[in-house]
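For homework, think about our next protein:
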Amino acid sequence: MAGLKKPISLIVGVFKARTDGLSFNSTCRVFNIAKNTLLDWERKFQDIKPTLLMYSILNTFISSKIIEGDELYTKIEKNVPVEECQGWTILLMERASRFIWALGCGKKDRTLFYNALQLLGDVIKRTGDVTLVTDGERRYGNILFEICHDVVHNGKRGRPPKVLLKGLKVRLKNKGDRSSKKKLAREKYETPQNEHPQTIQNISNSDIHANHAEAFNSSIRRKNSAYRRKTNTYAKSTTGLQRTLDIYWIAHNFIVEHFTTKQVPAVALGILKEGLSWVKVFQIRKPYII
């Protein structure tokens, strides 16, 4: 809260409006504040994310079981082809608690998936038993296999095979192609990578879906003005879009109760005993790296 001259009640009202879908310029007009002032507040709030993320990963009581992965698209700066756009947003969300582990934007390439799955790899090392389910995107399983794999020494001749870590499962639900021949050739549910022989197979086909992640994608179109299809340019820059995502990540995980679980996601996952308030979040110190 260092350097903040406005009343904290006004600042809290501004962030509630921002996380409820009010755009940047509209917020400045409604609350009669300067754009640089709001930008400074949002940057201060964004700087708290690394602290909360580090605390969440290092917590020994988390028990992430099923994590859903999905992507969301919006335009940035100008209208370009989809494969060149920087507005792709990747989501990794724990199903039971609705806790969001990864929420980042960028070009839909290997770097975007690798950064999110690198974070998931740290979570897997803390929990052990994790199932990742996706809808059709194979890069989740392929990149996670590079990050979290093990070698099984079975006593047979030749190089020992590589498998996923013990307790880690990856499931893929194929949405199918337009061609009927390809639909018949592909199975509806797949295991894209070899799994450890000692991994307990306790997930049914009915649990292989990303419905909760898709529901989140629908809600963020209402609560983040950059994802609404009302103008040709949805977001001005990747940095600005990521700033709004970080603010929403903090509010969603640690402050606001989810309407289905009736709990703050961090509380439901076991990271906190009770949710944080907006004032408490502003009182968290930014970590200094020497």
